[in-house]
Amino acid sequence: MHTVVLGTSGTTADDVLAVARGNARVELSPEALDGIATSRAIVDALAAKPDPVYGVSTGFGALAVMHIGPELRAQLQRSIVRSHAAGMGPRVEREVVRALMFLRLKTLASGRTGVRPVVAETMARILNAGITPVVREYGSLGCSGDLAPLSHCALTLMGEGEAEGPDGVVRPSAELLAAHGIEPVELREKEGLALLNGTDGMLGMLLMACADLGALFTAADITAAMSLEGLLGTDRVLAPELHAIRPHPGQAASADNMLRVLAGSALTGHFQEDEAPRVQDAYSVRCAPQVAGAGRDTLAHARLVADRELASAVDNPVVLPDGRVESNGNFHGAPVAYVLDFLAVAAADLGSIAERRTDRLLDKNRSHGLPPFLAGDPGVDSGLMIAQYTQAALVSENKRLAVPASADSIPSSAMQEDHVSMGWSAARKLRHAIDNLTRIIAVELVAASRAIELRELTGDELVAAPATRSVVQAARGAGVSGPGPDRFLAPDLAAAEAFVRSGGLVEAAEKVTGPLA
């Protein structure tokens, strides 16, 4: 099994994905443990002094003015975890919780939080045991960290609350820790606060969203190329010299993908004899690289922000290399929240243009010779009429999900925390939007593959590109049916969704084209 070592080098997005989705083991390097111990010694020295230090000998948030004596400081740390573990709603996905915990552990390993080594070591053991705290949907405002989600994780560290075991069964955390020989942690000065103050949840979801959207942009280029073929469109608009004069890198990458998928097609560039020749295709076909390309460039910016946040040590207060312990505002999630919202806009627009191509394939007045709704016997059969309704509903929801969460702020903690990022909410809605986008692309795949097969049935000369033929054949093998009489359609759509989600669509095209961007 793959192992991720914290402390020897920078943490990467692949490390986070390996732990969150691949159950990779986590280890703390000797250097990391030494750094943790060094910063802890600074906190211990401050705790012994009479001067108040936030998070060490004071209350929290609006209660930071209250001094806490040595005899109550362990209780103070337990209390912040218990009181802040106030999440509500449905459970958050296992991969999100694992990313959340791993990223908090990464910050603990930075030697900037002042916890004892045992705290970091116990968190690593919990991850490696496959124990996943129960975290609820609501409770983070994306400022002062993802407080409630991280508190539910810290609760498990203390042997309290509930968690899911490696067998998928939810049990009391104390039982799961005991079953794996893990001692609960008795938190001391600063440690409860250090476990809660981070952008880890929203960052983990951003990293997973970037990976998922990267794959979906490639998939969307393939289905756009297939729709272009089904509509007998022209591939001349994909010529590299046209995109070189508007040098957006994402646009060039999408155009190149489409051109490679369409190589060898006998379906492109045809115009129906019984209508006025088309000199250019509709925007949803002709401008596919411009829209998908803009999304790719948005994704590149989001990855840059994610990499910067991965290189950060987010806590308040923070232990600096010169021994100072300083309050700060680095827990504010604005940088992450903004790009999460930006990606939701890109996902909504990519789905919107895909749906327009699907609708064009189904409309006999705009499909250039295809049967209405790609039906077997139009009138008796409805074909893909309602599949487009489903796609349209998904597109409409993604437009609602594109409304930015980060434009909102609700004051909290008696106006001490008077401006928040709502980054957690931005991340949650982006995950939903990506799921919807996967389904939208799947519907375009169903329509475009059926259109291509219907074209090929009309004459030997109308042969699709080798890459698109590979996709159609792989989709049929994955349970996506082709043209014919009406059938129970939901299983076809589910099979198409699974085909896209698994990477099968891209893999089938790349068997012919080689790696696509």
Low-confidence stretches: none
- Helix-strand pattern, N to C? EHEHHEHHEEHEEHHHHHHHEEHHHHHH
Specify the CATH class of the largest domain.
Mainly Alpha
At the fourth level of CATH, the homologous superfamily of the largest domain is Fumarase/aspartase (Central domain)
| CATH architecture title of the largest domain | Up-down Bundle
Helical run tally: 19
**What's the Cα radius of gyration?**
27 Å
Give the overall pLDDT as a whole number.
94
Helix/strand class: mainly alpha
Q: Strand share of the residues?
A: 5-15%
CATH topology value of the largest domain = Fumarase C, Chain A, domain 2
Largest sheet: 3 strands, antiparallel
| First and last CA, distance | 29 Å
In total, the number of strands is: 9
**Domain module count:** 2
Strand order of the largest sheet: 4-6-7
Apparent shape? elongated
Q: How much helix is in the residues?
A: 40-55%
